[in-house]
Fold each of these.
Amino acid sequence: MYPVLRLMWQLFLYRRSARLPVTGIHVSHHYCLPWDIDLWRELNNGRTLTLYDMGRIPLAGRVGLIEVLRRKGWGLAIAGASVRYRRRITMFERIEMRSRVLTWDARFVYVEQSMWKSSGECANHVLYRTALTGREGIITPDRILAELGHFEPAPPAPAWARAWIEADAQRTWPPMQE
């Protein structure tokens, strides 16, 4: 089940936080709860992606995007993800989540998120390709950024992010047709 109450709690916690610039980093703290674990008593990989919503959506609020979504009737969509899992997160372990907009291109906004253990080790990391959608389809990042009052060019994507973006563009669709 989707953790609606946890998401509402995060939105409540950060409702009066300082506004962030478009590429600012939102830091939040979370616990791995009993319903987040898998058979191996660690944070389930699917639940990890769900918990990333707990950082990404408050980030959207802090940069002013939620106000724009409501005003325009737009929605958020995930168009792709690349995840690396490196360290286990066990039940009741506290984690720090960091969320930020990494860059954007003509169609998509790329959001980077990571979970950090209290030891200082990075447990996992994700790069999301996100899109805003409206009645007319995908809303271009330049239009979204204009609504936010941000007119600067996209930050350059790191080489690893560019490589993923380029590699993913080579994937066939629909899949498994070869």
Note: The chain has one domain: 4-169.
Amino acid sequence: MQEIWIDYLNAIDAKALALTDGEILDAVEKALADQGRGETVIEPRVHLVPESSDKGHFNVLRGYVKSLGFAGVKVVGDFVDNYKQGLPSELAVLNLFDPETGIPKAIIDATAITDMRTGAVTAIGAKYLARKDSKVLGHVGARGTSYWNVRLLDHLFDFEEIRVHSRRPESRNAFAERLEKDLGKKIIVTDNWQDCLDGADIMIEASRLPEPTPLFKTEWVKQGAFVVPYGTMSALEFNLTDIMNKVVVDDWGQCGPGRPYGALRRHVDEGKVTEETLHAEIGQIVCGDRPGRESDDETILFWHRGLSTTDVALGAAMVEKARKLGIGQRLRFA
């Protein structure tokens, strides 16, 4: 049997690679375009709930990107009380495989990948679906993915005003301080949802609710706004989709009926959002098969649940950069 070696990148390696905003966005945008052209395989995520969803659960994501020559499986834990132990709420491992032979090719700490790719999908959604002159961002939530939402959105739009809110004052204040340091601009910290979201050009909801609770009011959404809700438990009023000119998702296979969790779960399960009423998947828009925003007056909602293919894309980018820079380890497998 031939020798098999695995590229291993731990959290320290992932940080040392310091993927730039441009590298992150390019890798994810290419994967989305591949999806739109039908050159990926996305298996709907599955969940492992050890005790109860109140404590947390594991997501298992599986995907293949033809152009990269990788299949991948990511396992990510999502445990809301991890902050009490000084841990991020989401910790993840990504495994990359040769799709021709099944040979394992890489093991990567994917905690940062999860955060970065989520932010990149939010930002790329805005690139195609938000007004080009969007100047005010309202963002609810301060978990790991939230930082990359704001950072990558600001990379594209250079906002005049950024408002943030989360349930715990210490988390929202620390979130704002980090953003001010890294973005070099003032961040407005709000102590309630309305002051954060009302009238914003781009509205992001990344909350961590224990159960569905309609805290995001439809009346706060102005005509022409771009709305991205992706909390595990819905924070939306049921009539929010009634004012939308277009509803876009990342992958209908993961958003369709019978799947657990998600911001539009009730809307889908009760038939308010269907495959027929859906405007498009974001990959169809990125590859040019379907139009994105067509006028400044359109009010558009983008719901993304997380794409395994974007994990694979960022993992592949990290492996390639690590080899060039001599970062990481190689582990003997066989």
Note: The domain at 5-113+309-332 is CATH 3.30.1780.10 (ornithine cyclodeaminase, domain 1).
Amino acid sequence: MNIEALKRQAAARALEEVRDGMKLGLGTGSTAKHFVDLLGEKVRAGLNVVGVPTSEATRIQAEQCGVPLTTLDEVDRLDLTVDGADEIDSALNLIKGGGGALLREKIVAAASDRMIVIADDSKWVDVLGRFPLPVELVPFGLAATRRAMAGAFAETGNSGQMVLRKDKDGHAFVTDGGHWIVDAQLGRISDAPRLAGLLTSIPGVAEHGLFIGLASLAVLAGSQGIRVIERR
């Protein structure tokens, strides 16, 4: 079975958690895209839900699928967010942001009662860090922010190259929020919760891709079927 089919299986399993009347956070990325497609089918069949998209790309897709949308200015809390991940560990801590939507994804996840992360089982890791850690930065003072990031890495026993993400034209990649992204190639992240706190405290960091304690359930699809893991 190919990767896209596995992603769609995980999305379909997460859709079983959706109930009529729910307010949903709609994730960004290739796996979340399958969820929005399947959700649209349910909406066209009569399911009554409303969604908050985590990116402009997801907003456009959801509108095309007929999913009603709202914003976090119009609703207090979301019942459920369904999103993908670049890496998932056994504590359901995540690395996210490969698609560049980490800031909005984290805002929406934090405003939700539950977060389900969906993925093919290649995203399951013993230790986070093989996937480069995205850090969303304010362009002003970039060098100073990178020095502070290096200090946070050193303080937690991490090190690695920091690479400014570029778009296909070779310019700095710009997020929906107007920020840049530096991808930190750390290999194995020591003490991810502490590193997350240190990165958050750096003034030039808009957000980082460590999602600590936000996911309550992971749905992983593999050649042996679906695995559902709850956060301990």
Note: The CA atoms of residues 92 and 154 lie 24 Å apart.
